[in-house]
Amino acid sequence: MGLEDDDMKKGEASGETSEKETGLSRKNSVSSLSPTEDDDEDDRDDRKPELGPMIALREQLEKDKDDESLRRWKEQLIGVVDLEDVGETPDPVVKILDLTIRSPDREEMVLTIPEDGLPNPKGPWFTIKEGSKYTLVFNFRVTNNIVSGLRYNNTVWKTAVKVDSTKAMLGTFSPQSEPYQHVMPEETTPSGMFARGSYSARTKFVDDDNKCYLEINYTFDIRKSWQ
């Protein structure tokens, strides 16, 4: 998703594709879903500094808890954290709950993320109308520890050709019982004969350490009307 109308038309006519780098997947053909060398390089950063060992958030919160000034300083940094959502281990836990497609042309489509990562192996996960404005909304929950630099990566192919690549930084989040919500900027689906059809996509949610919390492959259709 996040396809540009004019670029789609030009790409289909000339055999070239346009790629958008900005900054919430599901299973198809091997050629369309196999990551290329360039895709792998996008997710690597060999120049990151070496950091010390991670400390469990519970340990950090309970340390110096009798010092009022330190307690307030920690709350300014990470907010008020419910210890019920904090574990004994230092690794954060991020669960993507659902993806919502909002459009002024229809009711919201709420797409629940399946546990097995296969939304609809027998067909498209959703259909979106050509030329329609839409907004993606992610709902997710963070527990156990702070997740730093959570970001959304999405790649789209049509007939085994990559036609779109989107990256967006969601932010850094502390554990809490209530889900977080992130709203993406509004976009418009491409339109025209060359834009309509079936697409395959891969969506990933990763953090600063390239830890992947969700990778899901799916297909979707762009048609003349909503279905």
Describe the secondary structure blueprint for this structure.
Elements: H1 5-14, H2 30-33, H3 37-42, H4 57-62, H5 68-78, E1 93-102, E2 109-112, E3 126-129, E4 133-143, E5 147-158, E6 161-173, E7 180-183, E8 187-188, E9 197-206, E10 212-223
Parallel strand pairs: 3-10
Antiparallel strand pairs: 1-2, 1-4, 4-7, 4-8, 5-6, 5-9, 9-10
Please summarize what this structure is.
The protein has helices at residues 5-14, 30-33, 37-42, 57-62, 68-78; strands spanning 93-102, 109-112, 126-129, 133-143, 147-158, 161-173, 180-183, 187-188, 197-206, 212-223.
Mean pLDDT: 76
CATH architectural group: Distorted Sandwich
Domains counted in the coordinates: how many?
1
Instruction: Find the CATH superfamily.
Output: Coagulation Factor XIII, subunit A, domain 1
Kindly, what is the distance between the CA atoms of the first and last residues, rounded to a whole number of angstroms? 17 Å
Family: Belongs to the Rho GDI family.
Organism: Microthlaspi erraticum
Keywords: Cytoplasm
InterPro entries: Ig_E-set, Rho_GDI, RhoGDI_dom_sf
3D structure, described in words:
- Helix content is 16%, strand content 36%.
- The chain is α+β, with helices and mostly antiparallel strands and 227 residues long.
- It has one domain (57-223): Coagulation Factor XIII, subunit A, domain 1 (Coagulation Factor XIII, Chain A, domain 1), CATH 2.70.50.
- The strands form two sheets. Strands 1, 2, 4, 7 and 8 form a five-stranded antiparallel beta sheet that branches. It has a five-stranded mixed beta sheet with strand order 3-10-9-5-6, with no helix packed on it.
- The longest helix has 11 residues, at 68-78.
- The chain starts with a helix and ends with a strand.
